[in-house]
């Protein structure tokens, strides 16, 4: 059984007979997309973990792309009716949109086991454990019986609109050069299955020999990494023409470490 943001009002905190619960099927997976408190946030979805595995995309409360202004949302690509409905219950309805996207992305929507969304965001639950990460949505049942814990909370990030899946990478850059400068460092990944856009690794003071780490959620699974593009900029014309390079760049894919 897959629960797509099961309802919170009148159900949260009720006995298991009344609401969705892991005792309802051999395997229950749940996607939480609107689990902020009903009052005052108007969250429609239940927040506690109630399945065998529970996915909390983007933390489970506010979905990216749902904060658009009402006009752009209502006259969205899907037309006036779907746009109006999305505006009223955008977070809640993301659950079925993620699910339908998951059917065509068998390798997408990896959920990382983690104690909280903040820990996930800071990279504490990266990469996937040895046994791998479950895929949120249609292919979640590949992980039936793999978790022995009572409740498993899984976290991931998604895109703002279709296509929703993102793939998480850890990128570590050690700089080389003569002296420190202010600016930013961007990195793009190239691989056997495609290329990403540029992602900012750090900004501010850039010191040679220092190492900077960022976790990026890329819009594509690049497959085997074949090339990395390194870019830095100090945003203003510096007459001393400072030079900065990358001594090393390490890329780690969350899925297969």
TrEMBL record:
Its localization reads: Cell projection, Neuron projection; Secreted; Zymogen granule membrane
Domain named PLAT: which ranges?
167-257
> What are the UniProt keywords, alphabetically?
Cell projection, Cytoplasmic vesicle, Disulfide bond, Hydrolase, Lipid degradation, Lipid metabolism, Secreted
Q: Name one GO cellular component term.
A: zymogen granule membrane
The organism sits in which domain of life? Answer: Eukaryota
Catalytically driven reaction(s): a 1,2-diacyl-3-O-[alpha-D-galactosyl-(1->6)-beta-D-galactosyl]-sn-glycerol + H2O = acyl-3-O-[alpha-D-galactosyl-(1->6)-beta-D-galactosyl]-sn-glycerol + a fatty acid + H(+); 1,2-didecanoylglycerol + H2O = decanoylglycerol + decanoate + H(+); 1,2-didodecanoyl-3-beta-D-galactosyl-sn-glycerol + H2O = dodecanoyl-3-beta-D-galactosyl-sn-glycerol + dodecanoate + H(+); 1,2-didodecanoyl-3-O-[alpha-D-galactosyl-(1->6)-beta-D-galactosyl]-sn-glycerol + H2O = dodecanoyl-3-O-[alpha-D-galactosyl-(1->6)-beta-D-galactosyl]-sn-glycerol + dodecanoate + H(+)
Q: Which Gene3D superfamilies match?
A: alpha/beta hydrolase (3.40.50.1820), PLAT/LH2 domain (2.60.60.20)
Its BP terms in the Gene Ontology are: lipid catabolic process
Q: Which PROSITE patterns match?
A: PLAT
Q: One short Pfam family name for this protein?
A: PLAT
How does this protein sit in the membrane? Answer: Peripheral membrane protein
Q: In which pathway does it act?
A: Glycerolipid metabolism; triacylglycerol degradation; Glycolipid metabolism
EC identifiers of the protein: 3.1.1.26
**Which InterPro entries does the UniProt record give?**
AB_hydrolase_fold (IPR029058), Lipase (IPR013818), PLAT/LH2_dom (IPR001024), PLAT/LH2_dom_sf (IPR036392), TAG_lipase (IPR000734)
User: Could you give a GO molecular-function term held by this entry?
Assistant: galactolipase activity
What family does this chain come from, according to its entry?
Belongs to the AB hydrolase superfamily. Lipase family.
Question: What name has this protein been given in UniProt?
Answer: Pancreatic lipase-related protein 2
- Lineage of the source organism? Eukaryota, Metazoa, Chordata, Craniata, Vertebrata
Give the gene symbol.
Pnliprp1
């Amino acid at each position: 059984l897959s629960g797509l943001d099961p309802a919170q009002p009148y159900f949260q905190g009720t006995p298991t007979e009344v609401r969705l619960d892991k005792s309802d099927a051999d395997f229950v997976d749940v996607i939480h997309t609107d689990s902020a408190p009903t009052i005052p946030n108007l969250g429609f979805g239940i927040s506690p973990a109630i399945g065998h595995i529970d996915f909390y995309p983007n933390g489970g409360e506010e979905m990216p792309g749902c904060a658009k202004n009402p006009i752009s949302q209502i006259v969205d690509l899907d037309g006036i009716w779907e746009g109006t409905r999305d505006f009223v219950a955008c977070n809640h309805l993301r659950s079925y949109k993620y699910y339908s996207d998951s059917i065509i992305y068998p390798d997408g929507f990896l959920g990382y086991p983690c104690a909280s969304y903040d820990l996930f965001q800071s990279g504490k639950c990266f990469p996937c454990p040895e046994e791998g990460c479950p895929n949120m949505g249609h292919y979640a049942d590949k992980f039936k019986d793999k978790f022995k814990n009572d409740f498993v909370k899984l976290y991931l990030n998604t895109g703002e609109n279709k296509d929703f899946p993102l793939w998480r990478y850890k990128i570590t850059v050690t700089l080389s050069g003569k002296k420190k400068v202010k600016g930013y460092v961007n990195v793009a990944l190239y691989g056997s299955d495609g290329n990403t856009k540029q992602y900012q690794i750090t900004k501010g003071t850039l010191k040679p020999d220092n190492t900077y780490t960022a976790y990026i959620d890329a819009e594509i699974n690049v497959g085997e990494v074949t090339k990395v593009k390194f870019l830095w900029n100090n945003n203003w014309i510096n007459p001393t023409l400072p030079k900065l390079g990358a001594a090393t760049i390490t890329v780690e894919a969350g899925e297969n470490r």
